[in-house]
Amino acid sequence: MSKSVSFQKPMFIVSALTILAVAAVAWFSLHPSAALAGRENGGTVSARLGGVEGIRTFLDKKAVPAILADPELAPFFAVLTETPGDIEDCLARLLDHDLGGLSAKAGTATETGHICRSSMSNVHRGLAITDRAFDRFVEVVGREALAAGVAPADVQEIAHKLESYRGSIVRQ
Ligand code: HEM
After folding, report:
1. Among residues 41, 23, 25, 21, which one has the least CA distance to residue 33?
2. What is the pLDDT of residues 123-155, one digit of tens each?
3. Of all atoms in ligand 1, which is nearest to the CA of residue 86?
4. How far apart are CA 104 and CA 100, in angstroms?
5. 39 Cα to the center of ligand 1, angstroms
6. What is the DSSP secondary-structure string of 89-129?
7. What pLDDT is attached to residue 119?
8. For residue 137, what pLDDT is reported?
């Protein structure tokens, strides 16, 4: 009697584990993106913004139009050496990188062949950007993110990342 009990218990555990393993494999193969997000960038601000594509769409549809509609900021964008699309691509990748996403910070090519630059001082050299304009830029981006439904804590994190570039952007 005791013999059959000690034989059945491990058999039950082995079958239960087998069922669990099969169920896990089935779930992950049906939900590959969730599995990937959990492993690579789930839980990051970037992931909550929709990754680099979500950030790019937010810049294109919300932040950039608001910046260009702002009388204090618009004049800085009057003369450009690159296309607006390239600026959005490169800024989206930089922010994605800084907010925990998978993009490279710089050095990647856009569709036009532009290579995203790594030196923010070089990018903004000669533009005479003031602290006041920088504050306004961060304020407008934050306002647009809040209006788009981004959580206040995530907006704060975005502002914190933008703030880290102040020294290399203002008065270059
Ligand atoms: C707050 C942090 C900021 C970050 C992280 C940032 C980042 C960038 C990036 C990644 C680019 C494209 C660089 C490339 O081609 O590789 C860019 C371009 C540019 N940014 Fe910023 N930027 C910031 C603030 C500002 C502010 C405050 C202004 C002006 C008020 C500004 C004006 C510009 C202009 C005019 C360009 C285009 C430059 C050109 O065409 O040569 N940026 N920025």
Report:
1. 41
2. 999 999 999 999 999 999 999 999 999 999 999
3. 15
4. 11
5. 32
6. HHHHHHHHHHTT-SS-SS--B-TTSPBPPS-HHHHTTTS--
7. 98
8. 98
**Whether pLDDT at 66 is above 80:** yes
CB distance 129 to ligand 1 below 6 Å: yes
Atom number in ligand 1 closest to CA 80: 40
Amino acid at 115: I
For residue 171, the SS3 value is coil
50 DSSP 8-state letter: T
pTM: 0.81
Quick check: CB of 116 below 6 Å from ligand 1? yes
CA gap 125, 128 in Å, rounded: 7
Q: How far is the CA of 154 from the centre of ligand 1 (A)?
A: 21
| The token pair that represents 85 in the structure block | 């699309």
Q: Ligand 1, closest atom to CA 134?
A: 27
Parse the chain into domains and list their residue ranges: 2-169
**Residue 90 alpha carbon, nearest atom of ligand 1:** 10
Query: What is the domain class of 2-169 according to CATH?
Result: mainly alpha
Mutational pocket test of ligand 1: of 124, 125, 139, the residue with most ligand atoms within 8 Å of the beta carbon: 124
Give the Cα separation of 91 and 162 in Å (integer): 11
